Amino acid sequence: MKINQTILQEFILVGFSVYPHVQTFLFVVFFCLYLLTLTGNLAIIGLTCLDRALHNPMYLFLSALSFSETCYTLTIIPKMLADLLAKSRSISVIGCGLQMCFFLGLGGTNCIILTLMGYDRFLAICNPLRYPLLMTNMACGQLVASAWAGGFFISLIETALIFKGSFCIPNLVKHFFCHMRAVVRLNCLDSDLTEFIVTVISVSGLLGTFLLIILTYVFILSTVLRIPSAEGKQKAFSTCASHITVVIIHFGFASIVYLKPEASGGDDTLIAVPYTVITPFLSPLIFSLRNKDMKTAFGKVLGKARYLYK
Predict the structure, then answer these.
(1) Which residues contact 120 (CB under 8 A, 6 or more apart)?
(2) Tell me: the pLDDT tens digits for 108-125?
(3) What is the DSSP string of 24-55?
(4) Hey, which residues does 91 pair with through a beta bridge?
(5) Which DSSP state fits 168?
(6) In Å, what is the CA distance from 31 to each residue of 123, 164, 222, 249?
(7) C-beta separation of 198 from 143 below 8 A
(8) Is 151 helix (H, G, I), strand (E, B) or coil?
């Protein structure tokens, strides 16, 4: 129930304060995962820049995804870690709006880049002769820029819809960051309608990009099945394995957050952890461990480092 309409200056992030006895443990776990996430993403970006063999569209898209995910985690996890140790978990209304805008924008950017990675594999496997002409490094850069523009265009619309009105007290955001559903419920006017609109926008974007990826893999599968040799089929599938794995994890966890029925219950704070913490951690791990070129590039860098230190 909305108690009082007032001009709020800040929100209180309830977050994990409902689990006081495990906050120190959660801090250690999330801090370690965050460091590993940063290390993995920065390693991918660094290796792509240093090794000329990786200067091709597939790895440019991968480094763009790593950069986007690094920014994505920076918008949420440092604040979450600080709140796990602090007594005051306040965030200004402007700060909340900025955090939400960047979270939604970077989340949308990640979805679009994953879709572009699927499109890149589609061109490489289904149109190998035209691939060098169609997917140049310039075209790759333009597509990545479009992904950022598209992600933040949708984000700005959703954030503007949520913050256009005034908010009611109590100013308790029942989440560990400014999640749009948790914040929009504090809106004094038409909160149900606004929540429905922003949810439809988010779900449409999520399902739209996922269906495009599925469509590209339908064409890829039909092409691969026509390859006569088993070795050729295996080689084609191996170039897509990491991407498929990350897509399943990314969209699987995201669907739990955004497609969860309101009446189903459950703690939204805990439900959001896999999507905001686990997915960014697993993504660079999967792309690096299952990629021979990335392993080779890492070996080259280690070899050069050993040579310099001798």
Answers:
(1) 57, 58, 61, 135, 140
(2) 999 999 999 999 999 999
(3) HHHHHHHHHHHHHHHHHHHHHHHHHHH-GGG-
(4) 11
(5) E
(6) 39, 35, 43, 21
(7) no
(8) helix
